[in-house]
Amino acid sequence: MQTQTYTRYERARIIGARALQISMGAPLLIKTDKIDPLEIALEEFAHRKIPITVKRK
To answer: What homologous superfamily is domain 1-57 in, according to CATH?
Structure first.
């Protein structure tokens, strides 16, 4: 299994989309004390828990 590296644009889109989901009430995928949706999304991204994939041509 290859480790996929994301471009900075893909990374920003994934984290932004997840932060929006969290702000709209989506369940958290990690245990954290943080309140800010963006910080939570960044932490989830760092732990590779975000269920969003990137399709490339």
So the answer is: RNA polymerase subunit, RPB6/omega (3.90.940.10)
